[in-house]
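Risk register update: the risk of archive-format incompatibility is retired. Evidence:
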Amino acid sequence: MNVWDDLTGQADAIAIFRAAAARPSMKTAGTPDSTSADSGTPASGTPNAGSAGSSMTHSWLITGPPGSGRSNLAFAFATALLSPGTPEGDGSARRLVDARTHPDLIVLSTEGVIIKMESVKEAVQRSQYSPSVGRYRVIVVEDADRMVERTSNVLLKALEEPPERTVWILCAPSEADLLPTIRSRVRSVRLRVPSVDDVAALLMSRDGVDEATAERAAREAQSHIGMARRLATNPEARARREETLRAALGIRGVSAAVNAAARLLAIAGDDAKAITVERDTVEREGVLRSLGVEPGQSVPPGLRGQIKALEDDQKRRATRSLRDGIDRILVDLTSLYRDVIMVQLGREQSVINRELLTEVRGAGETCQPTATLATLDAIALARQRIESNVAPALALEAMLVSAIRRT
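Archived output:
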């Protein structure tokens, strides 16, 4: 199995990166081109698409919707670059990249709300070193859109004058999420949304999920690979999602909307805890063990600062996880009301939440399509408000009450 086998629905993008990894030459910095994985041609439409599609450059930007596999593709490309003599990924290099311990790999990511400037400065400094064992030193920046402008400017300086054997791979939902000056210095490859069939096939082959569960998970996740895997392998996650949709369908008045908003927030909290609690426990035990503190033993005063720093990081991660959980709920509600309007327009074959088709039909009979569109607008507004730091409970309440008034 080569490093590209675990990717799905991105054949054009894989071909671009595989060809680039196979070529030893590096394009001159400051002359990037933007390539669409949908078409396999430069965005500028230049005729030498084949040449551009196989060239190597010092900085890349992988864009695509959430769940399209941006990070997976970035690390597959990193593995190919760090593998001696093969663009298919050497076994030992792949294990080190998977463990994020390869000496020539730097990963810049955050489990908080933004990427800290200190982390970017450290990565930029390390990017100046020559590779120790491979052809390149590779820096993968996950969620590059989570940098504020001041932090992005630090990265910009590194992209303007990169060392000859350093490769930057940035990931973001879209090019518009980054500064224009950064966009001008990277080669952009845009990913498409994988099909439901592609995601289901991946779940069956990689995770051993049965066909029916894989298809349902891929469909309900709307081809978001990570969420599809979670729904396929975690019965509690599937139950929480169904409860979310049923809570929205059961609203009959303002008081019910307020109660439903509280319940949705609780569901998001439960989902976030399910993701973080186990990891936090293992992480804390590992740190204590590395510090020589036995289980059950009190932490010596001299080590409490390190434990406090760990706890602060975990709190930031929990905050982001909760926000992500709320956003997932709003995405699920968007799929629900999309289904309602599809039923209202006589397009039942395109319904996402097929297991709730009877309830969706009932909801469609209580209002006009214009009211359903207004509900979808209210959900979109709630997402914007939460992104702007409006209290999630207030945003959810306003969204649900507004939807009721329009139905």
